[in-house]
Amino acid sequence: MMSSQKKKVRMKDIADKLNISVNAVSLALNNKAGVSSETRQKVLEIANELEYVDRSPSLIKKNQLNNICLMIEERNFKDVRFYSSVILGIESEAKKNNYDLIVTFIDKNNYTIPSSIEQKKVSGIIIVGTVDDEYLKRVLYYGIPIIQVDNASFSINTDAVLTQNISGAYMATKYLIDNNHKEIGFFGEKDLTLSFYERWIGFNKSMEDNGLTIDEKLCLTNSIENYALKNDYKAVKEIIEKMDKLPTAWVCANDSAAVTLINALNIINIRVPDDISVIGFDDIDLCKAITPNLTTIRINKNFMGAQAVRNLLWRMENIDEPNYHTRMAVELIERKSVKRI
Fold first, then answer.
1. For residue 97, is pLDDT > 90?
2. Measured in Å, how far apart are the chain's first and last C-alpha atoms?
3. pLDDT category of residue 25 using cuts at 50, 70 and 90
4. Is pLDDT at 46 greater than 90 in this prediction?
5. Domains detected in the chain
6. Cβ atoms of 180 and 326 closer than 8 Å
7. Which residue in 23, 162, 242, 324 is deepest, having the highest Cβ count within 10 Å?
C-alpha cells in the first residue's frame, strides 16, 4: 500500500525561518564550530519542528556500511513470544545479505539516540514494535533509512511492514458468527498501537456486515495490555467479575491477551469454550501449550522479519521513492477454544 510523500524540508527552509545563512544551518546541524550554542539550539529545534531529514552525501555511501541497527523498546520485548520470531527472521535475512545487526534496547523513560546512529555507523534502521512519535522524529533526523515492523505511526510517514490486521480481525469475528455467536466482545487495548486499532476496526466491520450490534459493555478495551503482557490474570479476573454481563465469545487483540483472559476465566470457573469462546491473533507457540489450545489468526512472524530487511535494502537503493507499507497475509488456525452454540 503506497502512502503520500511529504515535501522535503531543506536547510534553506530552516535558514529562512531563522533569518540566518544556509551555511550557519549546515554548521549547526553538523555540530561544527562557527555558530553560537544559542543558534545551534534554535536550528535543532526548528529542524525537529519541520521534521528535517539529513540527506548529506556521507549517508548515501551506504554500501560501505554493512551494519543495521535493530531497535526495540524494552516494553515490547516483554512480548518475547511474538517478537523473538520476528527478530530471528531479521537476523537470518540480514546475515544472508552480509549485514551485521547492532541490537539496541530502548528505555521509554530515557530516549537516547544510539551512538551507532549518531555517528552514522549504520546504513539502515529497523524499529520493531511501538515507539514514541517524538523519538521517531529524532531518529529520522539522521537521514538513515528506517523500516518499522508490526507498527507504524499514526502521524509520521515511514516505511513499515505490518499485518493484514483489519481482514484478520474480520476473519476471526466472522468465524465466531459462523459458529452462531452473536453477543461478541473485544478484549484488548484498541488505542495502544496502530495494529490493535486496526484489529478493533476489523471486529467492528465484521459485526456490522453481519447485521450485529456491538455491545460496548462486552468489550474490554482500556488499560488491559499491561495485564496481558504480565499475564496478570488476577487483575483481569477482578475486571470480569465487575461486568454486568458476559459475551458468548471474545475476539482478542493478540494471543498474549487471549492467554491471560483464559487464565482469568479459569479461576472463576468459567470454562473455555463450553461457557465462553476465545479467539486470538498472532499464533505464538503458547497457543498450542495452553488448555484448551487457542484458535487464532496466524502471522508468519519469521517472514515478517525477513521482509523488513528486504524492504530496508530496497529503500537504501531508492532513497527518494515514496514511503510504503507492506502487509503480511494472515490465516485462520482452528484449534479448541471456540465452540459452536
1. yes
2. 38
3. confident
4. no
5. 11-47 (no CATH), 64-163+301-327 (3.40.50.2300), 165-300 (3.40.50.2300)
6. no
7. 162
Whole-angstrom Cα distance, residue 14 to residue 29? 11
**Radius of gyration over every alpha carbon of the chain, rounded to an integer in angstroms:** 23
d(CA 312, CA 155): 21
Using one digit for the tens of pLDDT, what is the confidence trace for 53-76?
A: 665 544 444 445 799 999 998 766
Q: Which of 251, 123, 122 is nearest to 188 (CA)?
A: 251
What band does 248 get if pLDDT is binned at 50, 70 and 90? very high
- pLDDT value of residue 228: 67
Q: For residues 283 and 183, what is the distance between their CA atoms, to the nearest angstrom? A: 24
Cβ pair 54, 141 in contact under 8 A = yes
Question: 286 CB contacts (<8 Å, ≥6 apart)?
Answer: 81, 255, 256, 259, 294
Say how far apart CA 88 and CA 196 lie, in whole Å. Answer: 23
Starting at the edge strand found earlier in the chain, the sheet holding 249-252 runs 184-187, 249-252, 277-279
CB burial readout 8-23, b (16+ within 10 A) else e: ebebebbbebbebeee
Q: How far apart are the C-alpha atoms of 237 and 242, rounded to whole Å?
A: 9
C-alpha cell at 292: 484448551
- Of the candidates 215, 217, 188, 339, the one whose C-alpha atom is nearest the C-alpha of residue 277 is 339
SS (HEC) of 37-96? HHHHHHHHHHHHHCCCCCCCHHHHCHHHCCEEEEEEEHHHHCCHHHHHHHHHHHHHHHHH
